[in-house]
């Protein structure tokens, strides 16, 4: 089966829908640290152990959140699986013909977005900035989701599932500190 071809307009929106921004971080982070975050985002990847060690060395106050960031990164597949299970339980027909995540390629794109949402959230956690999103990037993501008719209610449930699954993997005394990073992105998506 061949993958559907995306229109030029959709491909352009995908390029512009970069939801992370480090623009407000200059007052709290050195250029070297911001460049590490930016390189990871440019490559669409989680922060590596080397990135995390460098951040921790240059910003010693991040020690506790670096451990959380590493744990979430290392357990991303489990977390996304739990979020997917939550979406499928809430919307049992969503992957069936006529459902918002049908055919399978649409569902796969949704689960991939969950992986990227957690990636973006971990940048905020490691950088200790709940304001890790780009207004412009979110605008383009909203346009992209509208163009592709992405079921926003399911995406919000999925993001809430990511939060729940992630917080289960965080020490109880850290959950209140980490929750706002998830809440920030959930609130942004609810505005779509």
Structure description:
The protein is mainly α. Helix content is 68%, strand content 0%. It is built from nine helices and no strands. The longest helix is centred in the middle third of the chain and has 24 residues, at 104-127.
Summed up, what is this model?
The chain is mainly alpha-helical and 192 residues long.
Overview features:
192 residues, mainly alpha, 68% helix, globular
Summarize the topology:
Blueprint: H1 8-16, H2 31-42, H3 49-58, H4 63-74, H5 76-90, H6 104-127, H7 135-148, H8 152-167, H9 172-190
The helix tally amounts to 9
What gap, in angstroms, lies between the N and C termini? Answer: 32 Å
Order of helices and strands: HHHHHHHHH
Structural class assignment: mainly alpha
Arithmetic mean of pLDDT: 95
Estimate the helix proportion, in percent. 55-70%
Shape: globular
Strand content: under 5%
């Amino acid at each position: 089966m061949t993958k559907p071809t995306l229109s030029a307009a959709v491909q352009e929106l995908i390029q512009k829908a970069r939801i992370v921004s480090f623009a407000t971080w200059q007052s709290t982070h050195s250029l070297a640290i911001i460049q590490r975050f930016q390189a990871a985002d440019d490559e669409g990847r989680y922060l590596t152990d080397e990135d995390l060690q460098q951040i921790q060395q240059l910003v010693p106050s991040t020690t506790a959140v670096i451990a959380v960031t590493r744990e979430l990164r290392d357990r991303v597949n489990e977390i996304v699986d739990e979020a997917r299970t939550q979406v499928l339980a809430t919307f049992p027909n969503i992957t069936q013909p006529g459902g918002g995540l049908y055919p399978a390629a649409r569902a796969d794109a949704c689960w991939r977005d969950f992986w990227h949402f957690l990636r973006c959230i971990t940048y905020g956690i490691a950088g200790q900035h709940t304001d890790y999103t780009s207004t412009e990037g979110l605008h383009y993501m909203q346009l992209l989701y509208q163009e592709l008719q992405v079921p926003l209610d399911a995406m919000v449930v999925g993001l809430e599932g990511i939060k729940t699954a992630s917080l289960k993997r965080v020490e109880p005394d850290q959950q209140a500190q980490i929750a706002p990073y998830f809440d920030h992105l959930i609130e942004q998506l609810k505005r779509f």
